[in-house]
């Protein structure tokens, strides 16, 4: 199943604008958080920014996973007619 999940993720990155935008934003936040994490000292505003960025990044990840779950659920639905 993990390969199906990764394959779907790659397909969505290529075909779904919303998913791609969420992934791009998630990546950008990850870079900003990494930049803050490499500093030896963070001021109070920087500490607050780091926490805020982490929350935003987690929210984006939740949105992406929701889209993935939606696509996985629809893909696994039976295609035969019920009678």
What does this structure look like?
The protein is an all-alpha fold. It has one domain (15-75). It contains three helices and no strands. The longest helix is centred in the C-terminal third of the chain and has 32 residues, at 44-75. The radius of gyration is 18 Å and the shape is elongated. The protein starts with a helix and ends in an 8-residue tail after the last helix.
Radius of gyration, CA atoms, in whole angstroms: 18 Å
Helix content: over 70%
Compute the number of helices. 3
How would you sum up the major sheet? Answer: none
Q: Please tell me the overall pLDDT.
A: 89
How many distinct domains?
A: 1
Outline of the structure:
The chain is mostly helical and 83 residues long.
List the SSEs and their pairings:
Layout: H1 2-15, H2 17-37, H3 44-75
